[in-house]
Design a protein that fits this description.
alpha/beta, 5-stranded parallel β-sheet, 22 helices, 33% helix, binds flavin mononucleotide, binds iron/sulfur cluster
Amino acid sequence: MSSDPILQPYRLKHLTLRNRVFISSHEPAYTEDGMPKDRYRAYHVERARAGVALTMTAGSASVSRDSPPAFGNILAWKDEVVPWMKALADECHDHGAAVMIQLTHLGRRTRWDQGDWLPSLSSTGDREPAHRAFPKLIEDWDIARIVSDYADAAERMKAAGLDGIELEAYGHLMDQFWSPLTNTLDGPYNGPLDNRLRFAFEVLQAIRDRVGPGFIVGIRMVADECAEGGITRDEGVEIARRMKASGLVDFLNIIRGRIDTDAALTDVIPVQGMRSAPHLDFAGELRAATDFPVLHASRIPDVATARHAIAAGKLDLVGMTRAHIADPHLMAKVLRGEEDRIRPCVGANYCLDRIYQGGAALCLHNPSTGRELDLPHAVDRADAPLSVSVVGAGPGGLEAARVCAERGHRVTLHEAAGHAGGQIRLLAQLPRRREMLSVVEWRVAECERLGVTFRYNSFADEETVAAESPDVVIVATGGLPRTEGLFEGDDLVVSAWDILSGDAQPGRNVLVQDGAGDHAGLMAAERIAATGASVEIVTAERTLAPEVMGMTLTPYMRELQKGDVTFTPTWKLIGATRAGNGLDAVLGSDYGAMTRHRKVDQIVVNHGTLPLDDLYFGLKPLSSNLGEVDYEALIAGAPQRVEANPEGRFRLFRIGDAVASRNIHAAIHDAFRLCRVI
Ligand SMILES: Cc1cc2nc3c(=O)[nH]c(=O)nc-3n(C[C@H](O)[C@H](O)[C@H](O)COP(=O)(O)O)c2cc1C
Ligand code: SF4
């Protein structure tokens, strides 16, 4: 048997888990009608098949009607959940993985204008900043109802054949009672710890009465709110000890911090550039203090850290959740001794941020995650090898080369620069975004393994490409910053890319016009503000950088506020003229015909990219499909068969920003779904 610490089996009550790695509860928002149907099941089964020990399904599955989904949560208060969960559990069990589910009442962490439009409730009347519903103060009849709802939901999960459940007690109703910051009740549910824990123990007792002593029941609990007036570490340890002493709980899943604001949540679940495993030692201290099974997940993205967590006795089970979103086959690769082939989670947080914007969890650089039914992770080999020329080694071009090579084709990849990476190299200029380079490095390593021929410093024109006599050409040449569009003064501005690349030195008094609302504008502003310059970000949007999303925005805001950057939404740059030694920036607004002026010495514009498409249009007449893509076939996962020009010498496709300014996920998704059937 392997001596690898994370491959050791673990016994939790009666349940033997095959190793020490689990997927912690997370709601990917793949539900349909509140149910974990085929898409949801396929997602978990993919990871179960690859070898994870335990998958904690759902995130915050709702036990009551007045806990409506905040982000596509499973409705555990409905009886129809039982067959869906049973199908999921059965299939994961067939692959050797244990299955549990997280149950909760969200309390004030949701909205009242969802589901049945019932009022949100809590042990406080204060609203949670992140969800913004003012809750009603919970009453005695609510407590009785919700306690019994928990027991009903637990019973449903037992009936579905799950191995256990976990209750959510961080930022939700249960610990809203616990925390002095969110409990303003009178009487038996507030005051001393006994009182604040009363609701939790009533729930646990009701669950036990219903599911019996044999069923596994755990709690994912905050053990230190890290906030003035909140639950302290000492109180957290005491709560954990009482959980153990009650005999009602079988494991603890430790959380440190609060989640009521985007910023607080980001410290609980750190994103790229933030520390790895920031709460691991703390979870280990709880394990030592309670001598009880402890689970924990918080940015443990790599196998080495997971191994350390187990070997050092800090955890019994180590959560690698986003790591499994990025690479569902992580455990299979560990088992095969192919750790170096694991697709790394780069902490971009596209997955988690999307669910808070009403989308489904998608991985920035794994397009198959969440699309397991239509876009399987595995790439089949083609019947006959073809010759494929890819132009451009940004994320889209690299993905195209990788997938074509997986298909068994002979692939040549041209890149005008001396290295791969495209726009990602610019992003990585900001030290805390350096991890993005792994999106490139993983693909380069896979391409090298698969025998792709790299031609760096190769500015491929029509002649270069045609000389290779390819069967297929994929143009992934990306784009260049779009800076035109002012009524006058286009020549007076620099692009956000100019600032990031160092082609333009930051000014002292700078206006950043953010027309795209994505990373580049904020990154440029951050870089300029770091020099001590005065910076104002102007955007026609109602909010700041809408494409950057909640948690990813946190590190930017911390830096930008430090630099005293000012934000002016609903205004946009419409013109620029020279004024003495400086510039006069003219601002307009969609809301009226008025203008404003700013005297600055530099104007930086972020307005997406314009496709670099000369090569594509040059090759188009030479191609057999004249560049046409059959969208029906593309979406259905069928090969492209357009033959618009019988004289054509190759089939031609373009992907990513060479088509239109989008994002990394779009470029990789374009490449993957096209190339997996070439
Ligand atoms: C898409 C997504 C949804 C999540 N939803 C929940 C949730 O509903 N309940 C919960 O306790 N944690 C939730 N989490 C947090 C994860 O359980 C985990 O704590 C977090 O991702 C940190 O672990 P990691 O760094 O291994 O990903 C979610 C995470 C993601 C990525
Ligand atoms: S989107 Fe980013 S954080 Fe989420 S799994 Fe993918 S790489 Fe990791």
